[in-house]
């Protein structure tokens, strides 16, 4: 318990000291076949000690491009993607990429982050439909990444058993998520299968129950939710 409190205190102090100077870079990672895959690297003001790979929900297609020197992204309003600068504060660096179930794509980004920042632990984070990807990737990447975070998970999270995995697993959900395919009860039951869980409340909900500005997308409580995720990562 003391170790966890110390880690949390260090994380919060570094985050508070960091400036709002997070910046995006469009970079690439190399696959074993030599093909380069683009991803968005978001760097904050601290020295990275943890890396997170963010995969959007919905279509999962981020399609990062530089147009007239300006970065453009599909799904820019997605919870994880619009919050990437919050993830990159303090001792964290964030990599935003297409949702994928291809292990080589994730490992290419892991290797690229570790080439840049040393042997930092890297966590893969999905939300809504991209939790299908995090659940599918988990067995193949078990022990090869530090862990997975499943937010606003698809209902099959209820039967997703993590008890034999080496990598850590966290399930995050909003108590009032009204999306029929990401029921809070399904996420809550994940704890019986070995995953740690975090329930959040608050914020506001507008539009479709399954879209990014509803409770489903942690609208208005992005920082509070992300701080909980980062604190969980830092207590490892």
Provide a descriptive summary of the structure in words:
The protein is of the alpha/beta class and 236 residues long. Helices cover 29% and strands 24% of the residues. The protein has 7 helices and 10 strands. The protein has helices at 2-17, 79-82, 84-87, 103-117, 131-141, 184-188, 222-234; strands at 23-30, 36-43, 50-55, 65-67, 70-72, 92-96, 122-127, 147-151, 168-174, 196-200. The strands form 2 sheets. It has an 8-stranded mixed β-sheet with strand order 1-2-6-3-7-8-9-10, sandwiched between helices. It has a two-stranded antiparallel ribbon with strand order 4-5. A hairpin with a 2-residue loop joins strand 4 and strand 5. It is globular. It starts with a helix and ends with a helix. Mean pLDDT is 92; it is low at 1-19.
Q: Which structural class best describes the helix and strand composition?
A: alpha/beta
Question: How would you characterize the largest beta sheet?
Answer: 8 strands, mixed
Write the H/E string, N to C.
HEEEEEHHEHEHEEHEH
Number of strands: 10
**Uncertain parts:** 1-19
**Intertermini distance:** 11 Å
The number of helical runs is: 7
Helix % is: 25-40%
Taken from the alpha-carbon principal axes, the silhouette is globular
- Spatial ordering of strands, largest sheet: 1-2-6-3-7-8-9-10
Overall pLDDT score? 92
Q: How big is the Rg?
A: 17 Å
Could you tell me the strand content as a percent range? 15-25%
